[in-house]
Specification:
Blueprint (H helix, E strand, L loop, with lengths): L1 E5 L6 E6 L6 E6 L9 H12 L2 E7 L1 H4 L8 H18 L6 E6 L1 H9 L7 E5 L14 H5 L5 E6 L13 E6 L9 H16 L4
Parallel strand pairs: 3-4, 3-5, 5-6, 6-7, 7-8
Antiparallel strand pairs: 1-2, 2-4
């Protein structure tokens, strides 16, 4: 594992790099609004990606690096994310195909930046469809806007809601809630199998 500090327009971000033996793509994973890159589902997804021959960068947003718990505005999160993706692509992943992803808030960032960042696929862990108890405040337009293969892994009792199907979207429902911590091995296997399948056409 290597940790790299990356300058962004909103301060330094940090990327924790976990390399596969022979990487055929790179997966960038962002954390939730109040959590870090050590979340159980991010750790499990990292293991699954490495097993699929995919490098992983766990990306810590500048507000977390600076020690703040309250998340930055969406536009700042997106700008910082794209800056990190650009540096990693050029300096570490040597123009490999990029898969964007993350848990909760990080999944929203991945969806919003998918087109501009030229991601070939999106991995959403516990996508927050709406705030708990407020189904009228839907974030589904962010998910619906993605036009590349997308995997959403959602806990069956997630208070943030359950996304519906879409033309480019697979939904895998697992036991548990928003934390996705109940079956780490199953989550890792799901991510590995999905990455194997969607990356195969890319050679």
């Amino acid at each position: 594992m290597t940790t790299k500090s990356i300058d962004t327009p909103h301060g330094p971000a940090r990327a924790e790099l976990h390399c596969a033996e022979e990487g055929r793509a790179a997966l960038l994973l962002g954390h939730g609004a109040g959590g870090g890159v050590g979340a159980p589902d991010l750790v499990a997804a990292t293991r699954g990606a490495q097993a699929a021959g995919v490098h992983v960068a766990l990306v810590e947003q500048p507000y977390r690096v600076a020690g703040r718990r309250a998340p930055a505005p969406a536009a700042q999160l997106d700008t910082a994310w794209l800056a990190v993706a650009d540096v990693l692509s050029k300096e570490w992943f040597h123009d490999l195909p990029l898969v964007f992803g993350g848990r909760s808030s990080g999944a929203r960032v991945a969806c919003r930046t998918a087109a501009e960042g030229q991601a070939v696929a999106i991995l959403c862990l516990a996508f927050p469809v709406h705030p708990p108890g407020k189904p009228d405040r839907s974030r589904m337009p962010e998910l619906d806007a993605v036009t590349v293969p997308t995997l959403v892994v959602q806990g069956e009792s997630d208070p943030f809601g359950m996304p519906g199907p879409g033309p480019h979207r697979e939904i895998v429902v697992v036991p548990g809630d928003h934390s996705l911590r109940r079956d780490a091995a199953g989550l890792a296997r799901t991510v590995q199998e999905w990455l194997d399948r969607i990356l195969r056409p890319l050679g």
